Amino acid sequence: MAPATGRPPHTTDRGGYFAVVDPSTGEAFDEAPDRRPEELDPVVDRARAAWPGWRADPAARRTALLAAADAVEAAATALAPLLTREQGKPLTESHAEVARTAARLRYFAELDIGAQPITDDRPVHSRLRWRSIGAVAAIVPWNFPLQLASAKFAPALAAGNTMVLKPSPSTPLATRMLGAVLAGSLPEGVLTVVTGREPLGARLASHPGIRHVTFTGSAATGRAVAAGAAASLARVTLELGGNDAAILLDDVDVEEIADRLFWAAFRNCGQVCMAVKRVYAPARLHDRVVEALAHRASTTVVGPGLDPASRIGPVSNAPQLAHVERRTARALADGGRAAAGGHRLDRPGYFFAPTILADVPADSPVVTEEQFGPVLPVLPYDSLDEAVRAANGTGFGLGGSVWSTDLDRAAAVADRLECGTAWINHHAELSLAQPFAGAKDSGVGVAGGPWGLYGNLRPFVVHRPEEA
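-> structure tokens emitted (468 positions)
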């Protein structure tokens, strides 16, 4: 594949650019511009200058966003392989991510925001209108670069805002290409992609010209983003990850759910904020659950994402691979047992064997913290109350699931979970029309559906006296 920058790939960083690594080889294959924080000022100025014209014509916005969706679909054969090359996921998953990006543009383009009458007892006519905010900043992680970018720019642009979008330095190339694709449908300055390493993101989050900062990433970085945005009283939307628990009830059919449960944990190499990251199984079923999941872990093909045979790709970058290795080593040192995997694969690239852990203490970091990789602990429980307490016992509250043949009983248990979304007999499936939000340390604000659109707007009320 030709370099996305048009320059030969470099194995080391050079002035003004940084190397982009293929996680399936561990070697650099291209580079991206390394913007300095002071370079943001003209970018933000252009976004602010484009705002009045963009917000003024809702019909033109809708037409532009629908055209942008068509352009994204037309570019899928270029976008998807580049995404796989820099992120590592199987090519089929990259194509799905591109399709989701186009679908999200269409969904928000079609949402209608009209004026709403306010009914009260006063002799005035009051109407609520919604106005855009201004220039918005989006800071996006490396696990779903295009999908999470679109989750931010689609509602923001549909609402009449403009945006400066910063992808992760691990995965800048497909996002840059996406920005170029969208530029053919959008006026200049409406959406600008900037790439670079820190402190570029910190400067963007705290820039005085930005009125809303939307961020997806770790809780620690999210707190720093919120602190930076507070300087200018900018609004923040923070999606800060999760440690989702799956509770299996005592009537569950282990073999019937094993495939769904496995892929709810291991899709995208486990690098999904709302993936299953802990399984709680009744003590009498625990060994059967471990065996069923371990069989799938040990027989699933792990390889480069561009290989059609691969079902699980590499961990996306070297720091995350090191994190997964540390979490797993600590679990084994704590007395855990690897029923499958438990180690890095002996090959080039950032490959880690899909791992099922048993006999892990409940206070091991692989249970209490987010591992964000292809590692899944399975823990036994004696009473359902114990399982619910354990599921709710971390600082996160993004999602959770309950698995049972009795849907009413499962729903009653799901109601007890302290999270933003609970699933029954499946996990990590979201509609474009539903809200996505977390509890506790899993975030602030709402994405998705009309709620995500209103998060990019501010209310404006007009009071008019009744005619005499």
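Residues 1-11 have pLDDT under 50 and may be disordered.
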